[in-house]
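Need a sequence for this fold. Nothing fancy.
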């Protein structure tokens, strides 16, 4: 019998070839995923895990390619681990994940868990109250909600003089890169929500679930508030030129 697994998608992946370390959100707690499961706060806790070879291949005889830990941070389930770069299999898996980049998706095994079925808005949901996670693994396909890479320890320092850094904080990411990443994330969320909505309509399941709509409402309101803040900082760089031109016309 195959070991039950759950797959989640990462928005992007950055890596340090010398250390092979990664920190990522691999699940969102209290959110109904595309499998109809909802992992509750406290279900994961803090556990030490093995990093499996690609596609959970370590369940079928391939050596593990790393190790790490999983823990909860609010509604984020976080994986923090390191590839075994001193082994051929570990390095190959690391380089594969690095090269796949933002297309890379992840999964974790859940052979031992406590759960119950609940009904919400006409939908049957499997609520996972406790789960023992023996391993996580890079995979080809995912079904998670709002998963993403948080950071990679030991990133190569970014060049100075491009963008703006946050005062009092180490210079880890250029300001303009951060802005472009936020734009890309917003576009990806909107695109994925539209695809999920279309898929549900095609299968006769109706619109997005109430939980998904609530989270999208939170996102919408946050984007509106962010837009209002950004408007106060935008400057019309053509204003001065227009004023000078107007002075010659008077």
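Here you go.
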């Amino acid at each position: 019998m195959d070991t039950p697994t759950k797959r989640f998608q990462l928005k992007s992946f950055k890596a340090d070839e010398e250390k092979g370390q990664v920190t990522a959100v691999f699940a969102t707690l209290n959110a109904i995923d595309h499998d109809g499961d909802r992992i509750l706060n406290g279900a994961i806790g803090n556990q030490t895990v093995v990093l499996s070879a690609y596609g959970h291949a370590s369940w079928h005889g391939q050596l593990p390619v790393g190790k790490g830990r999983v823990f909860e941070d609010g509604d984020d389930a976080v994986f923090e681990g390191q590839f075994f770069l001193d082994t051929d299999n570990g390095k190959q898996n690391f380089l594969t994940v690095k090269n796949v980049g933002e297309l890379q998706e992840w999964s974790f095994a859940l052979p031992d868990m406590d759960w119950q079925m609940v009904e919400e808005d006409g939908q049957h949901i499997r609520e996972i109250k406790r789960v023992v996670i023996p391993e996580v693994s890079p995979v080809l396909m995912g079904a998670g909600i709002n998963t993403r890479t948080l950071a990679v320890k030991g990133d190569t320092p970014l060049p100075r003089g491009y963008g703006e850094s946050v005062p009092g904080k180490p210079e880890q990411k250029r300001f303009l890169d951060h802005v472009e990443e936020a734009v890309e994330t917003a576009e990806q969320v909107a695109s994925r929500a539209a695809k999920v909505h279309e898929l549900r309509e095609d299968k006769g399941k109706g619109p997005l679930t109430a939980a998904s709509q609530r989270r999208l409402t939170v996102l919408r309101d946050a984007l509106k508030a962010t837009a209002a803040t950004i408007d106060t900082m935008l400057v019309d760089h053509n204003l001065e030129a227009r004023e000078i031109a107007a002075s010659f016309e008077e």
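For context: Residues 5-151 form one domain.
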